[in-house]
């Protein structure tokens, strides 16, 4: 079956029209610029480094096209010169093929607009379409904002003595709580499922 028409034309909770699409190798410069715009704290929480430049190996890993095993999507404002407002990715586990690692980054100035929740919904659906049944997010324990958001969207978590690991069970929609983020997630899943579950991107 055909996939959705891309980019997706959507509207954030504050009424801002945005576009959403996968990133690929042609987006290296855009991703590098978005990385430069992150605060040192945001870089550390997402990439575990505070350096002002993203390395070529990391760009290769992020933007490498590996259908069925890895996807990376971005949200951007079409009224601006293209710079992702946020991006999220999933990688299938090599040892647990029904599990994938989920990561999300939203630029500092764009936080608290529902961008991460929208991206979670997209990654939820695209990974599930590829046979993934659980998404796993690893978070430093001091990143209280991310930990709270993951819980508010229905992830269960535990601390292994080094980091917090959160898990969403993708088949269990009843586990999504009636929080603001949870309800937004459920609404995006319902809205986007017909297109994103229908076929590839």
Overview of this structure, please?
By secondary structure, the chain is an alpha+beta fold. It has one domain: Aminopeptidase. It is about 35% helix and about 25% strand. Strands 1-2-3-4-5-6-8-7 form an eight-stranded mixed β-sheet, with helices on both faces. Helix 4 packs across helix 6. It is globular. The termini are close together. The model has no long low-confidence stretch (mean pLDDT about 90).
- What is the highest CATH level, the class? Alpha Beta
How big a fraction of the residues is strand? 15-25%
Q: What is the number of helical segments per DSSP (H or I, 4+ residues)?
A: 6
Tally of distinct domains: 1
Based on secondary structure, the structural category is alpha+beta
What is the ordering of alpha helices and beta strands?
A: EEHHHEEEHEHEEH
- Rg over CA atoms: 16 Å
Itemize the secondary structure elements and their pairings.
Blueprint: E1 8-11, E2 17-22, H1 28-36, H2 40-47, H3 56-63, E3 70-76, E4 86-92, E5 99-106, H4 115-129, E6 134-139, H5 144-152, E7 156-159, E8 164-169, H6 180-196
Parallel strand pairs: 5-6
Antiparallel strand pairs: 1-2, 2-3, 3-4, 4-5, 6-8, 7-8
Organism: Luteolibacter ambystomatis
InterPro entries: Acyl_CoA_acyltransferase (IPR016181)
Protein name: N-acetyltransferase
Short description:
The chain has an 8-stranded mixed sheet with strand order 1-2-3-4-5-6-8-7, sandwiched between helices. The protein is of the alpha+beta class and 201 residues long.
